[in-house]
Amino acid sequence: MRLLITNDDGIDSVFLHALVHALVRAGHALYVVAPKHEQSWVGAAKSRSRPVHATTADRGFGCPTWIVDGTPSDAVNIALDHLLPPGAPPDAVLSGINVGLNASLGFIIASGTIAGAWEGALHGLPALAFSQDLTEEIYNRLKDHGGRPDGDLQDALATSAHRAAQLTPELVAATPPRRFVVHNVNFPFPHRAGTTVQRTVPAQVIVPRLFSPAADDGTHRLIFRLGDDLSPAAPLTDRAALAAGHISHTVLDYTRLGQL
Length: 260
Hints:
Number of strands: 11
Order of helices and strands: EHEEEHEHHEHHEEEEHE
Largest sheet: 9 strands, mixed
CATH superfamily: Survival protein SurE-like phosphatase/nucleotidase
Strand order of the largest sheet: 3-4-2-1-5-6-7-11-8
CATH class: Alpha Beta
CATH architecture: 3-Layer(aba) Sandwich
Strand content: 15-25%
Number of helices: 7
Helix content: 25-40%
Number of domains: 1
Distance between the termini: 37 Å
């Protein structure tokens, strides 16, 4: 298949590179377009008030690659309309692998990773978003080492990238065009070969107090919180599946919003 790949952690994210290399090994033809810098938690924001630059890049992928100095939504829009060969749209848009989970309503809506996939759906294409759950300790160690995974995380990421490449053809085949659907896939940590996939719904999580009190200079800073899970016992939620060590697969069907 021809696949357009993006993310929200930026062009140099090892997690993006792991996904790209796994898809290349699986024999797919890729185009990669990713933000210049991390764009986590920007949702589906577009750069409305300034020009956006897209430049070619070489990150050793062996496929056409561009860097966009904007959001994931900017990147996918510009790529589909202006960068990819005319008359040859990709078979799907893939976003990820995200550094950290994208599970529960609050995280799904805020996610730049899911928004990148959503832009593909808005162009009538099958859309997939992949994310790798992490413990807080592992996440902090990853940041301390400049985004370079080590030990157990490296093994989990390799397994997740391989599994994403395996899941992609079946999820794309199961998604007719122009259906406004995003497949949201979250990999657990640790993630091992043989980990089962469970269909899930988004957890109902309240996420208050996301910003600190004002500092002496009057500024507030974002504080990461997983929030308070108010979900009923059934059906199985994305958060519950990850906690039980499963791969969570949530079908985000945006045509169902507001249905009576």
